[in-house]
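Dear support,

I submitted the protein below through the web form. The confirmation email said the job was done, but the results page showed an empty box. After a refresh the structure appeared. I'm attaching both so you can tell me whether what I see now is the final result or a partial one.
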Amino acid sequence: MPEIGEVARIVHYIHKHLVGRTIKTCEAFADDIVYGKVGCSSDAFQKHVTGRRITGAAQQGKYFYITFDKSPHAVLHLGMTGWMKFDAEETGYYRNPKAKEEEWPPKYAKFLLKCEKETVKGEAREAVQSAFVDARRLARIRLVDCEADNIRNETPLKENGPDPVRDKEIVTVEWLSDLLNRKRVPVKALLLDQGNVSGVGNWVCDEVMYQARLHPEQYSNTFSKAQTKQLYDALIEVCTIAVETRSDSSQFPETWLMKYRWDKGKKDSNVLPNGEKIVHLKVGGRTSAIVPSVQKKTGAVAGDVDEDGETKVAKGRKRKSKAADEEDEEDEEDPEEKPVVKKGRAAKRAKATPVDEGEEEDVMAKNKRGKKALKVEDQADGGAEGDDELVKPVAKTGKGKKVTPKKAEKPATPGSRRSTRTKS
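What the results page shows now:
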């Protein structure tokens, strides 16, 4: 997924090929997800952008925006696979040497911009075409109606945290310390939240945590002042280098984890040059690369991770089914709602016996809702003819407590026994 360095690369090429140019034509291709999810449309985008002059481009974390000589302006997010391509040169941060020469316009294009040959500020500029592509349709394209200088105070940029490279006057040690102590979440989850910090993605965050020698699962509010300073220094350094090199990994320091982390699952190869082992684990649902020998846990840690970084299998009772949970909730809401249900042989032996009208009214008056049927169990003493005994439903009087009412006593009549088949 494109992160702060990859977005910086996009902005670089927009400045190189488009800023100062007039868009002769804009062909936007209908997509109710890429445009529609943010309240825009391909028709609206095409109509506004055609004929506009591009006055600038910049980024805030994973977002970038293109300003025109007339409002509204374009704010874009690359999603997982979005990119800006130019027919003048290759703009990707890596290229598969076996890949075939791509046709133009490229596949999965969401819009296509064309600029004719022209002179800009005394400089002759050749004709150029640019396309925004996204195969997975997770990118977002929108128009924001505001003054160009005020665009970062509008949605969606205002909902995102400061950019650690562009907003260094905001992102200070004191600011980071306050952010860490406001929440109790795994520190990696906090840094990945774009509402806290803009532009930090998975690999950048892992690099920051490795350079700071901190464990990504440790709770954010458990770090000392010295550790917070280490985290701040690593955050600024990693993000700045990523932006300045435009995410060209060949220019990254040789000491960076990013250069060696991609051999997950390969025996004896997922190690640093000094022999330290790289371990992969899940943090907040994201695959994380750490070096356990230097990233020690010094405070409370989310999850259950051993010293080598491997996730342990938690032991304990199995999780109850959803149906069982719902039954428990119903019982808690109304403990007297359900009578005891007999199972097995007891259920087979249970017999229903008619209840006299007076007795029925008495029992129903004691029942909270008056909807439960009485259950009568005919019990014989040692198999001999004996007394009929009326058994009332078992009631719950509290959480988990069951109380069985005393059996009603009736005078015995020698030699007689009322049968359920006896006609009244």
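Response: this is the final, complete result; the empty box was a page-load delay. Residues 213 and 295 are 5 Å apart (CA to CA).
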